[in-house]
Specification:
This is Oidioi.mRNA.OKI2018_I69.XSR.g16469.t1.cds. The protein is mostly helical. It is built from 25 helices and 2 strands. A two-stranded antiparallel ribbon has the order 1-2.
Length: 683
């Protein structure tokens, strides 16, 4: 690996701009070698130039090279001085707190240990900063002397060796002091202290451990393909008959939520891998403990494992609901999707202490609790990011509500499969798409059930079901709405911004209200028109917010579409951003396709209820893909904000402060003018 690539891989991404610009220095000294594309012509031209001319050109380039190198050295020294000064001040605060450890409560002691661990990681990053910059200077000066045939680079290295950023004892002493303090907090147990302070890997690509999980991932993925082929093969068996053909709408409702969850986890693992490759520090952004977490490959194993479980249960369901095996097994078929739901819930909430999943579970529980308390507590980035993910999983909420309704109303009794002769032919029904999508297919009104359609249908809506369904439908949007209102209260200077964001999520309430109005109005054309208008307004609003606010694109003041700083292209593959903009616009308005294609494609082979569920599944999957792409650019924008502040590790307070007190302190700082603080210092 070339050193420029090694430097880009190992540097602390939030400090990227403060490292030696190795590429720029290299470009200066390699100008004499330009012309390699046509080496013969280049040699002839070089042979025609006098030696004195070449030497003069070398001297000019050397002078420019060392001038630029001095600027780089000054930049590195200034940044290092700033960070080492902060480190010394913070070390003094930590030492003072450790000396008073007897006065601290258990919770404060735990927080103090976390602060030391995070500060230790910061100092280790500063040590790596020293090493990488010194190596960069050494290699570039060695390259200079080789190309220019001089020893000026070796002479300049004597200056670099004596530079302040290269005084290794400054960081080494802090490291040793932190190790000593942690040993004191661990009652003299050095091994336990060092284990707590261990430095996590720079990236998710770890030799040995990662390869082990890659093998597991490969096995799981291969097994998924095997069961997928087995499921497809079942439908090609001779004389095979399936009850699922008659109950397709209900089967989709029962199996869809767990599939969406498994796919979401797989997509998130791909997000993690992409962030790691691009240098986006999602660990810092999500405020996760970098020492104890799941890597991208491990998260991929979790998602693929859940997908495999889903495929196995679907395969069993298809086999038991067919005439392939003895009829005696068919009464148990309705237990299968319910059992699958229970297993997913147990996986999420059953404590897995002693495994690498345990920390992630605790983080997930804490996050869920914070989402339920939305509007009553201050909001962190991970809180509203996770709420955005829940909005994309809205179909999961609706499907779980529908499953509960089906069980409670005995529509899917757990002791038998109803046949056409069991259900009353004159039963009255309302298809699920009447409420899932008020504009779905005009033939889904109240109507008698024919013999051919006398099968399991979706849950018949009652006034109670309407109420529960309304709650499940608007819950994700309400969480984000409440968070925006809370942020508007906590941040007076950005109140207008957060209120505008709250207005964006309130369009979801409008869509749901108009959906109910459409259903109760007997599907009048005016209600349908208002519902379509509400969806268009919401799509335009959310699209603009995605591009301008969440991704930081569309800078109208500078009259440019892209940002000045780009991570995923580094200025070479900017087309990625244009493709992302186009796909976000297309997928935000993809719901319109249903009304152009829904009544003409495959509608002759499926009932209206079945076709509605197929469309809902398709658009739920499309929304997952849109959110998957959205995540890359949303975290890129947040990462660049952290880079602007050179924030590379979590900032953990040494004192336990109530979250409301933090907000009050921030408001106090925002409300006072800088001159007022100078007055306070003078007293």
């Amino acid at each position: 690996m070339k050193f420029a690539q090694e430097l880009a891989t190992k540097l602390t991404s939030e400090w990227r701009s403060e490292y030696v610009d190795y590429v720029k220095l290299k470009e200066i000294i390699t100008r004499l070698n330009d012309g390699k594309e046509n080496e013969v012509k280049f040699r002839i031209m070089k042979s025609m130039i006098s030696t004195d001319f070449i030497q003069r050109e070398k001297m000019k380039l050397s002078e420019q090279f060392f001038d630029e190198q001095e600027k780089e050295e000054t930049k590195v020294n200034l940044f290092f001085n700033e960070k080492i000064s902060y480190a010394n001040r913070h070390l003094a605060d930590i030492s003072r707190n450790v000396e008073e450890i007897q006065m601290h409560a258990k919770k404060e002691q735990k927080r103090l240990k976390e602060a030391i661990c995070e500060f230790y990681l910061f100092v280790k990053k500063l040590q790596a900063y020293q090493e990488l910059n010194f190596t960069a200077f050494r290699k570039i000066n060695k390259k200079h002397d080789k190309i220019m045939e001089s020893e000026d680079g070796a002479i300049f290295m004597n200056i670099i060796k004596n530079s302040r950023f290269n005084i290794r004892s400054l960081t080494l002493n802090i490291v040793r002091e932190l190790e000593s303090l942690m040993t004191t907090l661990e009652d003299g147990d050095t091994k336990k202290a060092m284990n707590r302070l261990r430095v996590p890997p720079i990236t998710d690509i770890v030799e040995g451990k990662t390869n082990h999980y890659l093998l597991i991932f490969g096995v799981l993925f291969g097994t998924c393909l095997m069961f997928l082929l087995a499921i497809i093969g079942i439908f090609y068996l001779n004389n095979a008959e399936f009850d699922v053909d008659k109950n397709l709408a209900t089967t989709i409702v029962l199996f869809r939520p767990t599939l969406l969850i498994a796919l979401f986890i797989i997509f998130f693992s791909l997000n993690m891998y992409g962030w790691a490759r691009a240098g986006v520090n999602n660990i810092l952004i999500f405020e996760i403990n970098p020492r104890d977490r799941l890597t991208a490959v491990q998260m991929g194993c979790v998602g693929t494992g859940l997908l495999l479980l889903w495929l196995i249960f679907l395969w069993i369901y298809l086999v038991l609901s067919s005439n392939i095996i003895a009829i005696s097994y068919r009464p148990y078929v309705n237990y299968i999707p319910i059992t699958l739901d229970i297993l997913f819930i147990l996986f999420a909430f059953f404590p897995s202490k002693g495994t690498e999943l345990w920390t992630t579970q605790k983080f997930f529980w804490k996050l869920l609790i914070r989402e339920l308390k939305a509007g009553f507590i201050p909001v962190a980035f991970v809180d509203f990011w996770f709420a955005d993910q829940l909005n994309s999983l809205g179909q999961v909420f609706l499907d779980f509500e529908q499953t509960l309704c089906l069980i409670s109303t005995n529509k899917i009794p757990l002791n038998f499969i109803p046949t056409p002769s069991v259900v009353n032919e004159s039963a009255i029904r309302i298809d699920s798409d009447d409420i899932n999508d008020p504009a779905s297919f005009v033939n889904t009104t109240l109507q008698p059930r024919s013999e051919a359609e006398s099968v399991i249908e979706v849950c018949s809506p009652s006034s109670i079901d309407y109420g529960f369904r309304f709650i499940f439908w608007v819950l994700p949007a309400y969480i984000r709405f409440a968070q925006c209102i809370r942020r508007a209260i906590d941040s007076p200077k950005r109140r207008a911004h957060h209120l505008q964001n709250a207005a964006k999520y309130s369009t979801s309430f409008l869509k749901v209200a108009l959906a109910y109005a459409y259903a109760y109005s007997g599907k009048s054309s005016s209600s349908f028109a208002f519902w379509i208008l509400a969806n268009i307004i919401a799509s335009v609003f959310t699209l603009f917010w995605d591009l301008r606010m969440d991704w930081g694109l569309l800078n109208f003041q500078k009259k440019q579409i892209l940002r000045d700083e780009l991570i995923y292209g580094h200025g070479e593959t900017n087309w990625i951003y244009y493709v992302a903009i186009i796909q976000d616009a297309v997928l935000r308005f993809a719901w319109i396709a249903k009304y152009f294609l829904g009544t003409s494609i495959i509608s002759s082979t499926l009932s209206s209820s079945q076709l509605a569920q197929v469309w809902q599944s398709l658009f739920a999957f499309i929304e997952l893909i849109r959110r998957f792409i959205w995540n890359f650019f949303r975290l890129e924008n947040e990462h660049l904000n952290n880079c602007g502040e050179f924030r590379a590790v979590r900032e953990i307070s040494l004192i336990v402060i109530n979250e409301d007190e933090i907000v009050s302190l921030e408001n106090l700082m925002d409300s006072r003018e800088p001159s007022h603080f100078h007055k306070l210092k003078s007293h």
